[in-house]
């Protein structure tokens, strides 16, 4: 019996010491600031924060769990918008609100986690450092915790900072694809031959061989584009602003052949394991390209490709594959909007 009394006294002493130390030396809530800069314009960055459907696509808190289920509530964007989430695997749930918005300057979020009636308050300020760079400042105030839970305040800031670091990587990928698309559309000059230095790209797609008979090739391209698009968006869960324009790669002069072989893929930011053997990754190395934009029937692209080949021959350049980048989604019975790129080298 005596040993149990001693153990009980020790436990009471430890609990008392813990309680006293938490009460006197650890704050019941915590406030801190985190600052980051991203290389994108203010309006592009702000729109990813004041729309909760956009916000949850790149914020690591929501993207890190495959089991999380999210519901959004009107008005979906700006002050008054809200969302709720449930994550059965991690046994968490919560609600998030935008309580205040000063467009392109400030947002205030309230986050209620689990059964806690007191919210985490997050003020986010945005400042244009330059036309192409934005500074983001998070001011976080955590809810009051009971004496027994105050130990959580020791790692709250580190956990929040780690989440922001991972989220910024995701945000840069999303904005990179979105801004690249916007800039590409704005810069289009049709039927003008240009020279571009193409950066390396990683494509996830499908290898195909098909007939080159009239209309048959384009119908096959549309069918296989839909396969790749559905796999990327439905099976992999990617959103449209998380990837680039679809690219078809083929021999420059195979438009003469009765049968055409091509690779059709969608640019992604990184490689990962895939379970469907119909799909594979392919890397497009950085290269110098002769480029021409074309809009019209798919069959009419041949004349534009011939212009690229003639230019390469005139300049005494060797050439490789031709890339057909679909600026607009290929759809059967409709004209195409293409960026045609011929890789050239000495």
Automatic annotation (TrEMBL):
Spans through the membrane: 6-26
Keyword terms: Membrane, Transmembrane, Transmembrane helix
Recorded source organism is Chryseobacterium oryctis
Of which family is this protein a member?
Answer: Belongs to the AHA1 family.
Q: Which InterPro entries match?
A: ASHA1/2-like_C (IPR013538), START-like_dom_sf (IPR023393)
Q: Tell me what this protein is called.
A: SRPBCC domain-containing protein
Instruction: Give start and end of each Activator of Hsp90 ATPase homologue 1/2-like C-terminal domain.
Output: 39-175
Reading the lineage from the top rank, the first entry is: Bacteria
Cite the Gene3D superfamilies for this sequence.
3.30.530.20
- Does this UniProt record's set of keywords contain Membrane? yes
């Amino acid at each position: 019996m005596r040993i149990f009394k001693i153990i009980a006294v020790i436990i009471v002493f430890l609990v008392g010491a813990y309680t006293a130390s938490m009460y006197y030396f650890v704050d019941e809530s915590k406030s801190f600031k985190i600052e980051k800069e991203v290389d994108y314009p203010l309006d592009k960055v702000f729109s990813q924060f004041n729309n909760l459907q956009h916000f949850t696509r790149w914020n690591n808190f929501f993207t890190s769990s495959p089991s999380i289920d999210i519901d959004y509530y009107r008005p979906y964007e700006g002050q008054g918008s809200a969302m709720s989430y449930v994550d059965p695997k991690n046994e968490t749930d919560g609600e998030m609100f935008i309580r205040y918005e000063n467009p392109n300057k400030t947002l205030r979020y309230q986050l209620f986690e689990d059964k806690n009636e007191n919210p985490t308050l997050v003020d986010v300020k945005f400042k244009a450092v330059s036309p192409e760079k934005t500074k983001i400042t998070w001011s976080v105030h955590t809810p009051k915790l009971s004496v027994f839970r105050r130990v959580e305040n020791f790692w709250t800031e580190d956990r929040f900072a780690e989440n922001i670091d991972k989220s910024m990587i995701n945000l840069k990928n999303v904005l990179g694809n979105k801004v690249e698309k916007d800039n590409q559309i704005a810069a289009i000059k049709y039927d003008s031959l240009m020279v571009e230095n193409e950066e390396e790209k990683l494509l996830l797609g499908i290898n195909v061989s098909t007939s080159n008979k009239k209309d048959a090739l384009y119908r096959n391209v549309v069918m296989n584009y839909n396969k790749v698009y559905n796999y990327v968006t439905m099976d992999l869960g990617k959103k449209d602003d998380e990837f680039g324009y679809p690219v078809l790669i083929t021999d420059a002069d195979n438009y003469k052949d009765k049968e055409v072989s091509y690779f059709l893929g969608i640019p992604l930011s990184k490689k990962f394991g895939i379970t469907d053997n119909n799909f594979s990754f392919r890397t497009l190395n950085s290269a110098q390209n002769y480029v021409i934009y074309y809009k019209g029937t798919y069959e009419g692209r041949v004349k534009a490709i011939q212009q690229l080949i003639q230019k390469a021959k005139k300049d005494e350049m060797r050439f490789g594959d031709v890339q057909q980048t679909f600026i607009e989604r290929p759809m059967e019975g409709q004209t195409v909007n293409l960026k045609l790129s011929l890789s050239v080298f000495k």
